[in-house]
Amino acid sequence: MEIWHNPSCSKSRTAESELRTAGTDYVVRRYLDEPPTVAELEDVLARLGLAPWDITRTADARKLGVELPAKDESEHDAWVALLAEHPRLIQRPILIGAGTAVVGRDAESIARAIDSD
After folding, report:
1. Which residues form a coiled coil (predicted)?
2. What is the edge-to-edge ordering of all strands in the sheet holding 100-103?
């Protein structure tokens, strides 16, 4: 399993702790230091079954002065490019397992990721 991790985020630290406690083998990706590519984002979005705006931290966009495209499928590519350019906008943590992914912001999602790995 891979965790897209921001060590300054409490939810991200909690998810990593839960992975460790469960004895799950995982790799940490500090996605702010090693941003995902457009292709990686597309893969994760497909696994999540979500649109790019569903994993965007919109409040952070305002703080960064980033203008967000319309939440419309015709703007999908623009959203993904924006997330690749500004990884701080990506919800965290994202847990990526064999064929699946979850946004691990709550205990249930983290448990689902651990169970599916």
Report:
1. none
2. 27-29, 2-4, 94-97, 100-103
For this structure, is 9 an active site residue? yes
CB 14 within 8 A of CB 95: no
- CATH at 100: 3.40.30.10
> Where are any strands of DSSP class E within the chain?
2-4, 27-29, 94-97, 100-103
Retrieve residue 8's tokens. Answer: 């300054």
Domain count for the chain, please give it: 1
The domain in which residue 41 lies consists of: 2-116
| Candidate list 1, 9, 32, 68, residue with the active-site label | 9
Low-confidence ranges of the chain (pLDDT < 50): none
